[in-house]
Amino acid sequence: MGRYRTPTVVAAASLLLTALCAGQAPAAAPPARIGIDDVTAEKLDDAITTAMREAGIPGVGVGLWVDGDGSYVRAFGASDKTTGTPIKTGMHTRIGSVTKTFTITGVLQLVDDGKVRLDAPVSTYLDGVPGGDRITVRQLADMRSGLYNYTEDPRWLDVFKADPYRAWNPKELLSIAFRHLANFAPGTRWEYSNTNTVLLGLLVEKMSGQPLHTYLQQHVFAPAGMNETSLPTGAEITSPYVHGYTNFTPDGATVDASTWNPSWGWAAGAMISSIDDLRTWVPTMVGGRLPDGDRLLEPATQAERLHMLPTGNAGLGYGLGIADFAGWIGHNGELPGYETIAVRLPQDRATLVIIVNSDVDGKFGNLSSLIANRITKIVSPKHVWSLPQEAQPNALPEPSSPTAPPASPKP
């Protein structure tokens, strides 16, 4: 059973946004325009396997569901290159920055509970944030705080490369970020920073009185019926799992990163999930309603979440921990060895989930975006995934350029 929420009056300006969301569509919703028949499925098979061959991708899992109008769920290639074990859509995978959608859901639930105000300074809730009296909770959630992104710190990157199994705690990560001056005044522009979401994870813990992983389990995962999703407290990953391959190593060699410790990403990128659970989460996240019909968030709060502002990257808008990729609403993520896309095209009532077990991007750029581009050219030619390279969700700077700023969003 989901959290019961008292109805609120929704401002007229919010109605259009909420009407576009799954679970809150107008009664006379137009029919889905994406069709999945045998011919389309064959085209998708060919497009995905061709992209894998061109880019050297070990394994890909894809789920495309059109509400009441068919689905396409496939897995291609290997989950483990050593054993040759095939990838399967039910396997667990690390989802990188898709984690942010859950953390910020927790923040927004606390807004609905009257414990947090979006436009309050973060210093109202957390001490020790440089300039925290001028940075709002909203600016943390929509990536406009100006706070330095700790995963760009060259010294931290050297430490991470030397020992990717090391455990990190949030205060260590923030201390790295806070050694640097802010990049700009709060609210003046958009810049993706994991520091923002780590702070929001601490805010959830303080204002709920629970560890973040416990809060999310009780208030998000369980109500949504997501039994394969968790925020690990260490390097654990539930079997069966997809092995992830990365070349983010001191010598550029490609290795299996599946047991690397993701605690450096924590509230910003450490979660584990599966294609089936992400299928459940995407319409819940975009529509603001749980599968049983209860509200995940109040309609006005959901509308705030979906209010997309420009990022400076063509075709990419960003709300409160959620993005608009040429009409596809949701998030993507990457951390060493893993790439994920979890999005919905509301007007077509379509949900798309992609997992890739490599971040060795090479000449094709982000691998999950390559797959998404090939898929959307076929199924939604008016909404083709074409995220620019400078807005890709790299977890860390490219191995060939360890001091270059990482692309965003991430991890």
How is the biggest beta sheet arranged?
9 strands, antiparallel
Measured as a percent range, the helix fraction is: 25-40%
The radius of gyration computed from the alpha-carbon positions, rounded to a whole number of angstroms, is: 20 Å
Number of strands: 13
- The CATH superfamily of the domain at 92-340 bears the name DD-peptidase/beta-lactamase superfamily
- Pick out the low-confidence regions: 1-29, 397-410
Give the strand order of the largest sheet, numbering strands 1, 2, ... along the chain: 3-2-1-13-12-11-10-9-8
Summarize the structure.
This protein has 411 residues and is of the alpha+beta class.
Explain the overall architecture.
The chain is of the alpha+beta class and 411 residues long. The protein has a domain at 92-340: DD-peptidase/beta-lactamase superfamily (Beta-lactamase, 3-Layer(aba) Sandwich), CATH 3.40.710. Helices cover 31% and strands 14% of the residues. It contains twelve helices and 13 strands. The strands form three sheets. The protein has a nine-stranded antiparallel beta sheet with strand order 3-2-1-13-12-11-10-9-8, sandwiched between helices. Strands 4-7 form a two-stranded antiparallel ribbon. β2 and β3 form a beta hairpin. It is globular and about 55 Å long. Mean pLDDT is 89; it is low at 1-29 and 397-410.
SSE diagram, text form:
Elements: H1 12-19, H2 38-55, E1 59-66, E2 71-80, E3 85-86, E4 93-94, H3 99-112, H4 137-141, H5 154-162, H6 170-177, H7 194-208, H8 212-224, E5 245-246, E6 255-256, H9 266-269, E7 272-273, H10 275-287, H11 299-305, E8 309-310, E9 316-318, E10 323-325, E11 328-335, E12 338-345, E13 350-356, H12 367-379
Antiparallel strand pairs: 1-2, 1-13, 2-3, 4-7, 5-6, 8-9, 9-10, 10-11, 11-12, 12-13
Helix pairs in contact: 1-11, 2-12, 3-7, 3-8, 6-7
